[in-house]
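[recover] target loaded
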């Protein structure tokens, strides 16, 4: 059933100029080491028709372009799609094997790199893996965007408990998805979208700024 925990919250983005931004911080640059980016999401009914960017470096297509999406109208509709332009400038770095249509259900996604291998888990089940040793940086000099793809449409739906862990592969095999909100474990650099305020957080490398009119849900 529904969690009563104070941090069992989400941010609702309507796709029309809503996003959260953070200034540049090396805390959100994963480099070539291990990392984990995880979150819950629930897309609106039409969200598969758009580029559903959960977290990204604030830069357009070109060098430094790193993103995690839950759908991409070009590369993979209703699929988990990951981009690293510097590793693959012609296509997505990773496109999930499964499809996850916006059917009103919450889903948990974990993107993990362990010892040079990228793993993607959806609802705790391994979707796929591939060798990946590139530098996955979500900030650099441009800062970070949550819920928006620079120069494009915004996220349509809810994002909850977005956690970035630098230097640790939290999951190394299929797992039971947590039934409580995520916590500040060792090496957590960002834990947000879990507060009664859209800009509230448990861990953040700087101030979160809300643009447009996202709402806490």
């Amino acid at each position: 059933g529904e969690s009563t925990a104070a941090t069992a919250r989400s941010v609702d983005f309507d796709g029309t100029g809503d996003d959260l931004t953070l200034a540049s911080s090396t805390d959100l640059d994963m480099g070539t080491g291990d990392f984990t980016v995880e979150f819950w999401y629930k897309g609106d009914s039409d969200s598969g028709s758009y580029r559903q960017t959960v977290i990204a470096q604030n830069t357009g297509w070109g060098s430094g372009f790193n993103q995690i999406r839950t759908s991409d109208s070009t590369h993979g509709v209703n699929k988990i799609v990951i981009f690293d332009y510097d590793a693959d400038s012609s296509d997505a770095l990773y496109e999930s094997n499964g499809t996850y249509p916006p059917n009103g259900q919450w889903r948990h996604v974990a993107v993990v790199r362990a010892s040079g291998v990228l793993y993607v888990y959806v609802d705790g089940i391994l979707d796929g893996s591939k060798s990946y040793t590139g530098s996955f940086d979500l900030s650099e000099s441009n800062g970070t965007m949550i819920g928006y793809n620079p120069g494009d449409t915004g996220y349509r739906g809810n994002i909850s408990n977005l956690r970035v862990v630098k230097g640790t592969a939290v999951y190394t095999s299929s797992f039971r998805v947590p039934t409580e909100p995520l916590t500040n474990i060792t090496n957590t650099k960002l834990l947000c979208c879990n507060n009664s305020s859209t800009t509230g957080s448990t861990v953040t490398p700087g101030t979160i700024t809300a643009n447009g009119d996202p709402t806490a849900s």
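[recover] notes: The chain has a mean pLDDT of 94.
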